[in-house]
Every structure is written in C-alpha cells, then in structure tokens.
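User: I'm writing a short methods note and want a consistent example. For Starch synthase, chloroplastic/amyloplastic, I'll paste the sequence; you return only the structure tokens, no commentary, since I'll be parsing the reply automatically.
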Amino acid sequence: MYTCWNGMNGRYTMGVPLIKFDSYMAVEQAETPLDIVFVSAEVAPWSKTGGLGDVVGSLPIALAARGHRVMVVAPRYINGKSDALYAGAFDTGCRVPLDMGACGTQEVAFFHQHSDGVDWVFVDHPSYHRPGNPYQDENGVFGDNQFRYALLSLAACEAPLQLNIGGFRSGSPPGFPYGDKVVFVANDWHAGLVPSYIAGKYRRAGVYKDARCIFAIHNLSHQGVEPAATFSNFGLPEDWYDPLSWEYPSWASINGPAVNILKGALVASDRIVTVSQGYAWEITTPEGGWGLHGVLQARQHVLNGITNGVDTAEWDPQTDAHTPAPFCANDLRGKADCKAALQRELGFKVNHEVPLVGWIGRLDHQKGPDLALEAVPGLAARGCEFVMLGSGDAEYENAMRAAEAEHPASFRGWVGFSVPVAHRIIAGCDILLMPSRFEPCGLNQLFAMRYGTIPIAHATGGLRDTIQDYSPYASEPSGKGTGWTFSPPDPGSMLRAVDAALETRWHRPEEWQAIMRNGMTADLSWNRAALQYEQIFNWALMDAPVRAY
Ligand code: ADP
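Assistant:
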C-alpha cells in the first residue's frame, strides 16, 4: 500500500500503484461488461501444444463468468486424431470470402459452440485439414503457416461482424452479431495480423473505430518472419508495409528485408500484455528481446505482465480423474498413493522414501531437456528416481531413450504427448524440475504446486515470479516459500538446488510439508488474472486507438 499527501484536503490518500495488480479485490461481476474476442492458433481442449492452448481455453471462461460476452476464434483443425472434439461445434452456415491479396480470395466457414458461457468459434478452411499438430507433422513445420494464420487473423476480424450468434450477455438480443465495438485479444504471432487488419484495413473504411486490440505475448521467440515479398499475401494496403518491415538478423541463413508479423502487432496494438511481470521486463532487454527489445522499450508504457492462472477444475488433486487417489492440503495420504501408483506404472520399486523427480515439457532447447538429461547420473547418485515426459525434437527424444537404457534403475523417458500421464507425474512426484533457459510464465510449476509437488526451477521469467524461494529462517511456515530456484541454468547449479531440497526433505520433514502446503493453498486461480486483464481492457478503452485514422 502506498500513501501520499493530498494537499487539497489535507489528508493522506492511500492506494496501490496502478501498474501493480495484487491488491485489487475480487468482485463478482464486472462493472462494465465488454464484448471480447480472443484470437489464437490453439485452444484447449480442441487444440493444444503448450501453454497457449491452456490459457485460451481458460481465461475466456473466467472473463465470461464476470459478465463479459466472450468469443474465441481458432482454426478447426481436422487431423484424423482429435476430430471428435469438434462434434459439439455446429456449422453456422456463414461463408465469408476473404481478400488474401496475391493468394486470391479464400472462402472460410465458421463453426460455433456455446459452452461455459463462451462462444467458441472455429474457422474452417482446407488448409487446417491435415495430419499433425497445428504447426507441423513428422516432416517438419508446414511451409504455409504464414498464410494459414494470416487467414485466421482476417477471419477473426470478420467473425464479430458476420456471425449472428447472438447475445449471451444478459440484455443483448439473440441472433445479432457482436458488432464492431469489441476488444480483441490477439495471442502470439499467429494472431499478430489482427491489429494490422483492424488499424490498416477496417478502421480506414470506418469499421472498428471504437474497437481496441490487445496483443498477448506467450512466447516472443516465435515472430512469424518471412521474406518481404510475402507482404502481398496479406491483403493489406501497400502503405501498411512499414509497421511490418524487418531485416533478417545477421545470424539468419538468409539476408535482406523481411516482414515480421509480431513486430507489426507490437506497433499496431493498443496495449501489450505478457504472461508474467518478470517476462514483461526481460523482453525489453537485449538478452530477452529476441531483436525486438527496442520496439518493446518504445511501447513500455502500454506493456504489462499478468501471471497465468491454473484451470482449477482440470488441475484439482481432490477430483482429478487421471489420478488414482484424491488428496488435499489437509490430508496428504492420497498423494502417497499417487506416488506408489506412479512408481508401479514406471516399473520402479514402490518405496515412499525414494525421492521421485519429474520433468514435463516440449523437447525444445528453451525447456532445458539437455540439462535435465545431463543431471540423470547426478540424480541417481543422490538416490532419486527421475521421469521425463516430452515430445518434440528427435535428438532429445533419442537421448531420453538412450538415458533410460543406460540408467534402467533410476530413469524413465516417456516420449510422447499425454495429458493423463502429465497429471499422474504432477500428482505422484515429490519434485518437479524446470531448468528452462527462458520461461514466459510456465504452467507446470503452478500445476505442481497445486499438487504438493515442489518445483525446482531456473530463476527466470514467470518461474522466478511464481516460485517463492524456501527460507529456513522465516519464522512462519507460510513464509518458508514454495520451492527452490537456481541460476545459471546448468546441471551443477540445478543439482545444488536439488541438494538443498533433499536436505530439507530428509532432515526437516515438517518444513518440507509446510512448503508443500504453501504451494497447495496459494491463489493460482484464473479469476485473479481475469481481473487484471479487465483492467488492461479498461485502460485501452480510456485511450484513443494507437492508429486512429
Ligand atoms: P509452453 O507453452 O512453452 O510449452 P507451458 O509451461 O506454458 O509451456 O505449458 C505447457 C503445457 O503443455 C502444460 O499444460 C504442460 O503440462 C503441457 N505439456 C507439455 N508437454 C507435454 C507432454 N509431453 N504431454 C502432456 N502435456 C504436456
């Protein structure tokens, strides 16, 4: 709480700094209900490769619960595996021809499902019908992703104008479109052309004059950079090239001018938000800005960090359908059962005394799977069992298989993407390792904390923000922290943090349990984050649009 002398009335005024959200009180319903349109390449449970899908599957529900009318626009991926998930989404019959410049006119269809208070809208186009995950198949990344996501962005601009999906906000008549006074939340580079279309195309034609665009960064390292000639595929006015213009960095294998969709979003959106306060700062530095720190510094006055929440319905140790026994902070007996079942499933001897360590994530350099694998012998020497679950880079997948063959008594490498297995690892382990080199927010440490699994993580981005380092000197159990962080990200410093954790587990078990309970009782809900997003929306609406024409 800040105090400041108010010379007008001769009193002290107390308040919180506007930029800091933690002290805001939760209210049941938003004072000013808004029409909000999320645009994303992923939305769980329909499509998910990582945290983006989780966020876009949860945050809109939390906002709708506060009285906002919320639409989410994502592709309708038909890949032969998860098609049944779309069974509840019906064809609206609406067909819209989109002007994709040199790629011609492309017709899209819209499917719609209303559930959990949210209008889930799926854009249908032949380019979303293919095997693989949203971005790639076993042959690598799709070559037409720039086109597929430019199409998504333009379709999302049409959805609030064209779809008569009505008013689910009380008082709005059914059977009407959302209209053009909406707040867009465009997520990551895939939706990064939304601010450009709104400002460069629609607003010039008198549409979306009262709309605002928020751009949400979940991972700055992917920016949608392609040769400059591809600008003509967007259907944007020629003089809009400048906001998107970019040069390939010196280390890239090609030289010359490029278009950078994410850079265009940073300059054309009204506000920018990223998924933790720590990452909001890191991306303004040369070390964390991936070449865009200068652009971000210039817009720092509209840049905020909001820590992601947890879907507390999906990740609840008391009701989790994927785990064998329920438990909670007041009764941890079920956690021991989850650990025993996991040890059995992995082919380890059931032994509660043996520390069980987990790692879950995309097998990508960012997440430090190589650092985790280097620590396998060190963890074995400390008497730990270690399980890694991940898919991605074939080099790491093979390294996991090789490590399992070399250390059969202490290591399991589960290659693949499995939500049930992720739940069982989160519930059954004692410790979750997260040696990510950078981490915008990170969700697994939040899931782990809810399940009394203690995170040990590199002190970066959202990991540093969300894990309170254990302090043996704090007088109250609640002050003792929720885990351990380490730096730099190398196996040595990670194993030193593991040593500190194991020392606490062996010699001060009551403190270990206090750390578990601190994580389990922390407020990690989306409701907290929804309030903060709401404030960003209101700030955006207070200011004139950044590109007003
Ligand atoms: P990122 O978005 O960078 O991949 P996050 O920590 O924000 O990282 O979110 C990752 C999400 O994907 C979490 O829900 C995590 O449990 C899930 N996940 C990652 N890899 C796997 C896997 N192999 N199997 C199941 N879930 C996974």
